């Protein structure tokens, strides 16, 4: 799930990662003749990712004058639903954005469809020895350790975007606890305003449910859920579903959010229709560009030490790629300081920008907060709810949609999630 303005489609996917290394020409197949480099991603053209990655393409073309870059815009849904078939095709690109997680990159790495980049990273001196890069490591399809099949050059986390002007009008302060957050939302309900923008047909619903579950987890129960290190705390999910349903009953979440995608809910917040929107840092750049009528900011989910987030989605090189050396060159360029700094100044979250290189306020805020989460000083990154096993994304969307509609009891939500989780987790 992302975090990713995933549904937006258009833009680019490589952000800076601060890896050392110099571009090299050549490779196999067409790469020896310097003809083409096929690049795919799904990010919105206006996003920080797309703009910084387009800068990387410009640099690549300058340094590879005999090479034509053939870019194709895909969608998040295409890669969710057809990624394995695409990678197994003889028409696979040379380098593409791919979804991190057991259910996505884990599946295709285990199937032998991705190039093992472990030796490439070592030979080229890539600086991938940090926890943000754990999303590129897979062992028998399980993320977090093993061989390197992908590289990320940005980070992301989910927080609460808020309309400062609307909060001020209600005399509300930034909440520091869950009770205070509910008190703020109640002020808006009393004023006839639905407080929380939600796209329950897409990732915002599952992200919110996950945040409510994380309120009842610690690092051990998180490891049990994400890494199969023990038995998950399913009671935490039932408590989360109970709170979610309660918020619908109290009017904090509109029953009309059923069928609303992430893009529409984010647009509604940007238009000033809702004071709160729980979603990821991938919105920072678009909000900076699109919101002119009110002041806005972000806070982490109040009272939680665990927060959805991780290193970003991956640059991967398909096993069937024809121009692998050129793909490696492109990945290196996206990791350079000029691309990393560009990403941060556009509101993205670079993982290795130069010190002082991010000067724009929104980029500086989300970059500093991500670094705090990465180090553990501001909490802990808890990955995403659908990562452990294939198929969980659809289950979460169905369950949160049913909660909004009032079609399911909280206990059944937890049971349905557990059933899907148990059916998909590694055996033995």
Give the mean pLDDT: 89
Low-confidence stretches: 1-32
Distance between the termini: 27 Å
The number of helical elements comes to 17
Q: What is the share of helical residues?
A: 40-55%
| Percent range for β-strand residues | 5-15%
Rg, Cα atoms, Å: 21 Å
Outline: globular
Number of E strands? 14
Largest sheet: 5 strands, mixed
Class of secondary structure makeup: alpha/beta
Provide a descriptive summary of the structure in words.
This protein is α/β, with parallel strands linked by helices and 428 residues long. Helix content is 43%, strand content 12%. The chain is built from 17 helices and 14 strands. The strands form four sheets. Strands 7, 8, 9, 10 and 12 form a five-stranded mixed beta sheet that branches. The chain has a four-stranded mixed beta sheet with strand order 2-1-3-13. The radius of gyration is 21 Å and the shape is globular.
Element layout with pairings:
Elements lengths: L29 H4 L2 E6 L6 H16 L4 E6 L2 H12 L7 E4 L3 H9 L7 H7 L12 E3 L2 E2 L3 E2 L6 E9 H6 L8 H13 L5 E2 L6 H11 L4 H9 L6 H16 L12 H9 L5 E5 L3 H7 L5 E4 L6 E2 L1 E3 L2 E3 L7 H11 L2 H9 L15 H15 L4 E2 L10 H14 L4 H15 L4
Parallel strand pairs: 1-2, 1-3, 8-9, 11-14
Antiparallel strand pairs: 3-13, 4-5, 4-6, 7-9, 7-10, 7-12
Helix pairs in contact: 2-13, 2-14, 8-10, 10-17, 16-17
């Amino acid at each position: 799930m992302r975090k990713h303005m995933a549904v937006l489609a258009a833009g680019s996917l490589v952000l800076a990662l601060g890896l050392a290394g110099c571009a090299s020409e050549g490779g196999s197949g067409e790469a020896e003749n310097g003809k083409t480099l096929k690049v795919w991603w799904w990010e919105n053209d206006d996003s920080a990712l797309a703009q910084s990655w387009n800068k990387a393409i410009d640099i690549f073309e300058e340094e590879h004058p005999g090479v034509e870059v053939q870019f194709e815009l895909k969608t998040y849904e295409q890669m969710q639903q057809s990624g394995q078939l695409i990678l197994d095709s003889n028409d696979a690109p040379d380098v593409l954005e791919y979804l991190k997680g057991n259910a996505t990159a884990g599946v295709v790495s285990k199937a032998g469809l991705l190039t093992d980049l472990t030796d490439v990273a070592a030979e080229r001196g890539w600086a991938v020895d940090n926890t943000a890069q754990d999303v590129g490591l897979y062992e028998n399809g399980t993320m977090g350790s093993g061989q390197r099949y992908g590289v990320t050059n940005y980070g992301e986390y989910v927080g609460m975007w808020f309309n400062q002007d609307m909060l001020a009008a209600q005399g509300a302060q930034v909440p520091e606890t869950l009770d205070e957050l509910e008190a703020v939302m109640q002020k808006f309900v009393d004023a006839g305003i639905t407080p929380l923008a939600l796209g329950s047909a897409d990732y915002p619903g599952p992200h919110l449910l996950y945040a409510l579950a994380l309120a009842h987890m610690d690092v051990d129960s998180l490891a049990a859920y994400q890494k199969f290190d023990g038995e998950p705390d399913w009671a935490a999910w039932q408590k989360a579903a109970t709170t979610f349903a309660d918020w619908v009953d109290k009017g904090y979440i509109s029953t009309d959010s059923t069928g609303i995608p992430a893009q529409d809910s984010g647009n509604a917040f940007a238009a000033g229709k809702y004071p709160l929107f729980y979603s990821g840092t991938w919105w920072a750049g678009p909000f900076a560009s699109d919101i002119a009528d009110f002041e806005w900011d972000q806070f982490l989910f109040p009272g939680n030490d665990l927060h959805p987030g991780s290193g970003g989605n991956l640059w991967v090189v398909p096993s069937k790629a024809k121009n692998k050396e050129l793909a490696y060159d492109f990945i290196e360029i996206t990791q350079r300081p000029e691309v990393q700094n560009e990403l941060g100044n556009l509101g993205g979250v670079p993982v290795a920008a130069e010190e002082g290189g991010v000067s724009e306020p929104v980029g500086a805020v989300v970059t500093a907060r991500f670094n705090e989460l990465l180090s553990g000083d501001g909490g802990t990154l808890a990955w995403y709810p659908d990562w452990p096993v294939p198929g969980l994304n659809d289950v979460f969307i169905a369950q949160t949609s049913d909660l909004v509609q009032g079609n399911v009891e909280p206990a059944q939500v937890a049971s349905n999630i557990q059933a899907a989780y148990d059916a998909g987790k590694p055996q033995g």
